[in-house]
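Researcher: Quick sanity check before group meeting.
Model: Go ahead. Protein one:
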Amino acid sequence: MGINERKTREKQALRERILEAARRIVIREGFAALSMRKIADAIEYSPATLYLYFASRDEIARALCAEGYAQLLASFEPLVQITDPAERLRALTRAYVAFGVAHPQTYRLIFMEDPTYLGAALGGTGEAGKVSGTGANDQANSQADPKVDRHANHEAAHQAEHADKSQAGTQVINPAAGHDTGDASMRLMVGALEELRAAGRLPGSADGAALAQALWATMHGIVALNLTCPVFPTVSLDTVVDAALDAWFGVREQVTVAAAGAAAATGSAHARRPAAKRKVVDA
């Protein structure tokens, strides 16, 4: 192994240590407790070293969001093979809720903390999410720590400037707006809803992207309430999810079947009536 390759591996290993420490803090104490100083203490390095890898706490948060979102997508992978689009959507939405419940702090960080974090998870950042150096809290921590040296600050500023240039003009990614950003989760939902519409199982005028936004909002609302409201739900969470899914996919199909049955019964009655009339006339 060459010297450069060894140094690259060592840098990658330390980067992973930083992220792992940050992940443990977020999971254990919540995002509000995360700071560069606390991460540095956890891995027994100075905060100055962290700034050589991440320009700010927000940059670490965006990296954690990208990892968490990839984990969510991985839970969707085995479900794309489900043939029936309604059942596929049921499975996808259940997996989405299950992820939020099993990983509450990660879910909060991705979907409930800062809009730019979700954009980063999907592969982009906006003006508010650009890396522009350390945040106010990070700067305060650096100034309070005598181990922060001029070289580290200069290097962090250089990396931040480079990040600004590379990200200039990038828009915040909004999956609900149907942006083509590699957001596989939204494409899965839109595709399944379009299949339902093509099969006549949704109103012909319904737009797949709009329906996907509404379905996503439904499931996000369930997860967010479960994470933030102590009196929700008053029944089991599975019951709430099933009721929501039945409202979306079950009731319409039941009504369609009932209507078809009623039409068939009406048709049979009409078919019998002429015969009855002829019998009377013949008599």
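Researcher: Fine. The other one?
Model: Protein two, sequence then structure:
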Amino acid sequence: MRQQVLRSGSIEIRPAEFLALAGERPLNLTARELDLLRALVVRHGRIVSREELYGAVWDEPYRKSDRSVDVYIAKLRHKLDEAVPGARFIHTHFGFGYRLEQEPQPLSEDGRESPEQRFPSGTGDSRPSPPRRSLHPFHIPETSP
């Protein structure tokens, strides 16, 4: 029996060939990385807990002290970024887990992601933030002579 091809955005997994593509470029994945990517693709758009991913990929009970899922997620992110620069695939939901959903990232004029794009404030406001003021109790504002 031939397994069907799995797709999520520009990610394609061909289980019968042990092949994963991102943006039509082959990903050089280990068997564990391929299993983790497959688990995320099958659950596309849904926040998946570490426990669920661990059970699906490692097929054993999850131990809270085990950081294997986080380590392999980091490796997958790196390989996906190499294949499709500027696109975000795996999103972290702190305290909950991970979600696979492709979001293209706008790049700056020099073709690089700015810190504001990597760490958005979440306000949706594209204006620059005002300069921060000192919160020191003895702060004396500068005055002009």
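Researcher: One line on it for the slide.
Model: The beta strands are 6-8, 11-14, 19-22, 25-26, 87-93, 97-104.
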